[in-house]
Amino acid sequence: ARYLPLLLYGLLIVLAFAHALILFMNGQLTVGEVITYMGLLEVLRFPTYISLFTFSAVQLGLAGAARILQTIKAETELDENAAGHSAPIRGEITFERVSFGYGQPSGEGQGAAPGEGETAPISRPLVLRDISFHISPGEIVAIVGQTGSGKTTLTRLVNRIFDATSGRVLIDGVDVRDWSLDSLRSQISTIEQDIFLFSRSIAENIAFGAAGNASRAQIEQAAREAQAHDFIMALPDGYDTVIGERGVTLSGGQRQRIAIARAFLTDPRILILDDSTSAIDSATEDEIQKAMRRIMRGRTTLLITHRLSQIRWADRVLVLRRGELVAQGTHEELLATSEPYRRICARYEETDRVSR
Q: Measured on CA atoms in the order 192, 196, 200, 205, is the torsion positive or negative?
């Protein structure tokens, strides 16, 4: 499609020259008129290019718009309970024999036969199997395990990105399926390794955590709490500095601190940190860790990390292996009693040593 306008214009030149040549051979045009004729085609080249390229761009735009509209109109698989439970969250989390598998039927409808004309969902192996634990309000819990053991999937059941295939996930004793999604998600913040920032000012990116309803004083206070104020003020336009799409003009550590400032502004009762410092260099690690320790204070925190120094922050550690909860306890207890945990710690310790 990119070279179609060039191809069409080339064909136009060939056809026009052939037509002029035929007229010349029939004595209907002189040499001067043929030259003038071809000169007029050269004059028309630029508007022809623009018209053809515009037509091509419109076609691409319409195709993209169709895909976007298809996504917008797609029905969610979650039963969005708009009139569901809505209350301030204390931060208590309970998993009761929870299992989850992608493509598996969830909730009360599991096991139901598909109706006439319907296609049965593709059943895949369970990612999580029979997970049970309880987290008290304000407790910091680290989740460790090998890649693919289900750590991130477990946290996505808390903010109801997915629904459990079987069992129940409770927040403050209420099943997440009975919560209003708006109320539930507005009180849970997630900071991941891959932070999404918009091509807007730093202040607008931080205020996004409060749905844009934040004063400049609140934004600056959140940035100070996240150890971000100093580097922001060093930028040419301070908080009004416009960053590139996804924050490409900022370093990894700077993007992380803006994400933490955004979470401070939201003031969540449950905080999920999903491997949020794995790509941070050692030069900025201390500042990031100070900000993380500050934001976790007084909040229920689920901490997925590959750093031993951060695991030691946790009040308790959950050890996942192939989708099963194989051990839980304090760092010291698990070092004494859990062989899988000792192997994980040895691997993390080697990774920390190499990264330094």
A: negative
What pTM was estimated for this model as a whole?
0.70
- Strand runs labelled E in 160-269: 166-171, 174-175, 188-192
In the chain, the domains with their CATH numbers are: 4-73 (no CATH), 86-103+126-187+268-356 (3.40.50.300), 196-266 (3.40.50.300)
In which residue are the tokens 């918009």 written?
A: 198
- Crossing angle of helices 216-225 and 282-296, rounded to 10°: 120
CA dist 221 and 27 (Å) reads 85
Beta strands in the chain (DSSP E): 93-100, 128-135, 140-145, 166-171, 174-175, 188-192, 270-274, 300-304, 316-321, 324-329
Token duo for residue 289 = 């860790």
The torsion of the CA quartet 237, 240, 243, 249, rounded to 10 degrees, works out to 30
Give pLDDT tens digits for 98-139.
999 887 666 544 444 444 444 444 556 889 999 999 999 999
